[in-house]
Amino acid sequence: MLKYVLKRLGLSIIILLGVSMIIYFLVRLMPVDFVMRRLSEMNQGGATISQETIEEMYKRYGLSDSSFFGILNGYASWLWHLCHFDFGVSFRGGGEVIQEIATHMPVSFAVAFISIIFEYMIAIPLGVTAATHQYSIRDYVVTILVMVGISLPSFFLGRALQHSLGFISLGNGEVLFYPNGLKYAGSTLNFFDQLIDYLKHLTLPILSTIILGVGGTMRYMRTNMLEVLNSDYIRTARAKGLKETKVIYKHAFRNTMIPIVTMMAGVLPSLFSGAMITEDVFDLPGIGEWALKATQAGDIPVIMTYNMFLALLSVIGVLLSDLMYVVVDPRVKLS
Predict the structure, then answer these.
(1) CB of 177 closer than 8 Å to CB of 166
(2) Domains of the chain
(3) Cα–Cα separations (whole angstroms), residue 75 to 24, 81, 227, 312
(4) C-alpha to C-alpha distance for 255 and 332, rounded to whole angstroms
(5) What average pLDDT score do residues 275-302 get?
(6) What is the value of pTM for the model shown?
């Protein structure tokens, strides 16, 4: 086991180096130019900006040389600072990138963590019941509801929830759910009222994320359960007279866990990535919205740190998923 983990960690370092190089070159080749955006903002007042000032700005942000070797040199400089745990300063905000990540991450983590828990609590039972009652009314109803959730664009669903549930009044000037933002901007609240206030603001984004995620997990669970239920050993178990509940939940369900464990490899990065469109619709100060604005502005330090953080989590998630195979199915051997 230890040898396998060390080997995978070594391969992960190579993978992360390749990913970082690809991301850096793509970022530098994007049509978005942070300096030009800043110049256009500065020029709105009609001020004349000299060529020397423009060149100085390109030099200050390390964007003066856009040739292949210039980009390669910029990547080497970024990698050197990264090895010294220097993640750079945000072009747009002017603060340390790592501090900005720490500021925006808790909101995205809270929304994603709660959403994933409810997503699996809802999707797995629905997938099992749809598979065990194939072609029944229950199966059709579950499938239709799931397909509706999958088909809805995230921005449309977010707006629909805002306009349908975001303005329900409680009759005393309060609303049941707030349609946007993270907290009430009024007077100072005590701890309990502040917690209620956060829940009112986060309920609709969490509900939107759950609806968008349940469908795929439920379909995946249903398909794998149907495949297992048609296996020879399940027919043998039924022929021996075992109760149907024991056949399903002891023999069949356990063997559907390996595909579910494979899906969970993406859970770790999703906890910290943030739903960009959902956070933008509900105006949440999460890491997704922050990264989206940084990408639109061409903020290279933020883009690189954010994407490499997700790449690292993806590699760790895949490794943990492989290790979980042994726990779920002892027949699996790591080599």
Answers:
(1) yes
(2) 2-83 (no CATH), 97-328 (1.10.3720.10)
(3) 7, 10, 48, 18
(4) 12
(5) 86
(6) 0.80
